[in-house]
Protein 1
Amino acid sequence: MPDGGAPVLDVTGLKTVFRTRGGEVHAVNTVDFHLNAGELLGVVGESGSGKSVTMMSLIGLLPTPPAEVRAGRVMFDGRDLLKTDDETLRDIRGGQIGFVFQDPMTSLNPVFTVGFQIMEPLRRHMGMGKRAARVRAAELLDLVGIPDATRRLGDFPHQFSGGMRQRVMIAIALACDPKVLIADEPTTALDVTIQAQILELMKELRTKLGMGVIWITHDLGVIAGIADRVMVMYGGQVVEQAPVRELFANPRHPYTRALLTTVPSVRGERVKRLTVIEGQPPILSQQPGWCPFRDRCPHRMEVCDRLNPQRYPVAAGHDAACFLVDPGLSEDYRPRPRPAPQPAPQPQPLQAQPQPRPIRQQPDPQPQPQPRPVQQQPDPQPQPQPQPGQKPQPQPVQQQPRPQSQPHPVQQQPQPQPKPQPQVRPTSVSHSFTIGGDDG
């Protein structure tokens, strides 16, 4: 860890607001911290806690409006960056202060080659010629682990994957050997092998060049491995600062403890449900006079509803913004120790319940077939006797009704009436007889 000397970067009372139609959003509220030469400061906190906005406020990267740095002082190399003109600030950005942005997919210019974008700060801030800048750009690509670096200088950003674009962004930030490097989640899109290479590169450069590094991340494991000090942010405020070993061994702010308990462990018993921080982050459009963590804090006291705690010293280089560590707080306001949690009762094994016998359903009675009604045959009509010499008349054929297949009674068909037969006139038959014929 670097010795305590004059800090290369000193921030005091920084306040940043965003003016919106719904009012002012207090994104950064009275932030104080410092960074020594050769030191790596880890900044952790939930999304929306103000980490990135704080660092972008230091070097004027926020759009104005709607952003406005309302108060504070940022001392770098003997000058206040908040009072520096734009031309001088452009010379500092990229030259003496490097910045690795969070989103590599949109940070590179899609119409320029990767080599051109790496060579640009070399030619502007270091005065290199085109040939020397190209050689240095190839060295930087090789340094961050991109193979065939000389050939890849002529490629465009869309020809690189997300992880390789992130490495290009790191190469651009390291191009001019800056005094301060601000890295906003620089290893998010990298696999663990390249991530380990980048972390080793950071350790080497800050030792070799005396470069101070501000490392913004959600990964507490990375912070534990490379950071010298840790700054925990919540609701736009710094709630705890400590050396890395001290913070992990003795966290004093309830939010810091909650963050550490949410990290899943690879040892111990396997749990079915991961630990979470209950509740929601504070609404930054309001600026109340109470503790921003009170609604989610398990140690909430009456004084937390009235006052916003300042940072109280805990140990050497360790302070926390919580009334629990305030030595002047009356014992009446301190929370009473909670009883030890009782082990949850083990659920009794469920006994098999006897299955109820199924109820046999009686079949629905089938409808009985109705007897067919007997068709009444019509009385036979007397047939007229033929007259001598008359032909017998044909008898009309009576049609029998068709049997019905319906189960209900069949309606009787009307009896057919015999058709009137035409009267046949008797035909006269002439007979010729010869009586007593001629004998001769």
Note: Residues 22 and 285 are 8 Å apart (CA to CA).
Protein 2
Amino acid sequence: EAYKNTLIAIPAANLGVVLEGAGPVMVSRYGKIIKFGSKGAGKVYNAGGDAALRATRRPAFNNMLKNGVEVNGNSFKLNEHAYNSMFKSGRKDIMPDDIIDALARKPEPAQPGSVQYINPSTGTTVFVNPTSKEIVGIWPSGFGK
């Protein structure tokens, strides 16, 4: 436990993901990326199994469900299905910063009736109804692909 949440530098080539402006990152004891240095300074993308970090998610997701979130001048609202899925297996560690940074990217075509936004740093995919701007699904990296 002594190394948990210790800031260490890892070359981007060793992470298995592409990091823009890779600097120091924080990894959980499970090897998941928690915080990025340089460009992503102060952002938490993954709770890494940390109960205290996980506890901060619900209020943020409640706010996204009730009030939505504005990203680059676009308003997005989390729907009930996507909200409920955030507390189930495979998504319990996805943090709001991960979703917001995905939504800051250019949308890509997805299944009919939706577009997808992908956070290139984590691979998290956010599915959005392009008409209503409703977030209809969130997949961790590699899920369903």
Note: Helices lie at 51-55, 57-66, 80-85, 96-103.
